[in-house]
């Protein structure tokens, strides 16, 4: 296996610890994250003034000569699979795909193959420069198996770091389209009494809570107001269906990106998503409000009606502002056509 050498000098007024000094002074083009640098120190791949240093807390001084040996990326233990992908955008650093419903993002005990990562390993082949020292796509966010839509994946360490930072700072634009029960409206007195729910100008429903794993069902998320992780979702009604209105097409914006966030927030607000087996539930729809065909279409919709429609971010290497849109998948288009 080949390797590359990265040499540089510690600048003035360095942090006291080796790991922090390396993180500050390593050349940007080396694309080495703090986690990767820590691993390189532990592995003995960092030399200071010609002597290998394996102590992340070792003292350094301005003018110290550092040489880092970086081995070429190892092959991933996950196997490539020839699975069709809808590629929306791709360059040397990242790829944006429109994931179909039914595809898991990353292999797990219950889904060891047939995942997006398997498909990307085949699609990208030798064009993966490696993330964290392994030739694998860098997953910086996920969408649920039965949710369709846009996902960005890093192909290099530099892209992985840059994208992860944007997601951490909540600067990535993410908008979803969903079909929910009922119509979230500021005129609904019930919603005014839902804790964590408020309305912003333009009839925008804002849901602000904490989220954490359910105490007894570890596959679910639960709404909390103490502990857990901060979560904010905004919801706008695009179109309502029925007379009186019984369903709505909504647009949801994520300020944070927690597991199942939209699904659990909408259920908390009393507007669970059509087809959601975990949070939405089956609701009895009035034949006075909807046609028999519409009621049958809703009853037969076999996944959560949720689609990641918009994804916007700054390119982590070039800085270019990128924004992508993906139309609703056919099953959601058919559902809406029946409801109209």
Automatic annotation (TrEMBL):
Catalysed reaction per UniProt? a uridine in RNA = a pseudouridine in RNA; uridine(1911/1915/1917) in 23S rRNA = pseudouridine(1911/1915/1917) in 23S rRNA
- Output this protein's name: Pseudouridine synthase
Which CDD domains is this protein grouped with? PseudoU_synth_RluA_like, S4
Q: Does the keyword Transport apply?
A: no
Q: Which family does it belong to?
A: Belongs to the pseudouridine synthase RluA family.
Q: What is its EC number?
A: 5.4.99.-
Reported function: Responsible for synthesis of pseudouridine from uracil at positions 1911, 1915 and 1917 in 23S ribosomal RNA.
User: Keyword annotations for this protein?
Assistant: Isomerase, RNA-binding
Active site at 144
Q: Which SMART domains match?
A: S4
Q: What InterPro entries does the annotation carry?
A: PsdUridine_synth_cat_dom_sf (IPR020103), PsdUridine_synth_RluA-like_CS (IPR006224), PsdUridine_synth_RluC/D (IPR006225), PsdUridine_synth_RsuA/RluA (IPR006145), RluA_PseudoU_synthase (IPR050188), S4_RNA-bd (IPR002942), S4_RNA-bd_sf (IPR036986)
GO MF entries: 23S rRNA pseudouridine(1911/1915/1917) synthase activity; RNA binding
Q: Which GO terms describe its biological process?
A: enzyme-directed rRNA pseudouridine synthesis
The RNA-binding S4 domain covers which part of the protein? 16-84
Which source organism does the UniProt entry give? Tritonibacter litoralis
DNA-binding among keywords: no
Instruction: Please indicate which superkingdom the organism of origin belongs to.
Output: Bacteria
């Amino acid at each position: 296996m080949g390797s590359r050498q990265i040499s540089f000098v510690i600048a003035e007024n360095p942090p006291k610890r080796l790991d922090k000094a390396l993180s500050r002074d390593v050349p940007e083009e080396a694309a080495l994250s703090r986690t990767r640098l820590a691993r390189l120190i532990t592995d003995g791949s960092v030399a200071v003034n010609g002597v290998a240093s394996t102590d992340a807390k070792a003292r350094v001084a301005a003018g110290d000569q550092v040489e880092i040996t970086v081995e070429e990326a190892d092959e991933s233990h996950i196997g490539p699979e020839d699975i069709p992908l809808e590629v929306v955008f791709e360059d040397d650093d990242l790829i944006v795909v429109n994931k179909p419903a039914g595809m898991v993002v990353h292999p797990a005990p219950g889904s060891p193959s047939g995942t997006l990562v398997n498909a990307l390993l085949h699609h990208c082949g030798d064009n993966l420069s490696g993330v964290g020292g392994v030739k694998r796509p860098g997953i910086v966010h996920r969408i649920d198996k039965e949710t369709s839509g846009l996902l960005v994946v890093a192909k290099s360490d530099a892209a992985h770091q840059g994208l992860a930072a944007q997601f951490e700072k909540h600067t990535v634009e993410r908008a979803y389209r969903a079909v929910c029960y009922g119509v979230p409206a500021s005129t609904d007195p019930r919603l005014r009494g839902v804790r964590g729910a408020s309305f912003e100008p333009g009839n925008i429903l804002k849901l602000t809570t904490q989220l954490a794993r359910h105490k007894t069902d570890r596959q679910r998320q639960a709404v909390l107001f103490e502990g857990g992780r901060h979560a904010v979702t905004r919801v706008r009604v695009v179109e309502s269906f029925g007379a009186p209105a019984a369903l709505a097409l909504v647009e949801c914006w994520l300020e944070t990106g927690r597991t199942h966030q939209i699904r659990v927030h909408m259920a908390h607000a009393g507007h669970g998503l059509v087809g959601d087996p975990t949070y939405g539930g089956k609701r009895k729809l009035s034949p006075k409000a909807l046609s028999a065909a519409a009621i049958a279409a809703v009853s037969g919709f076999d996944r959560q009606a949720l689609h990641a429609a918009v994804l916007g971010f700054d390119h982590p290497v070039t800085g270019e502002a990128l924004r992508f849109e993906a139309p609703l998948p056919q099953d959601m288009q058919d559902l809406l056509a029946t409801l109209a």
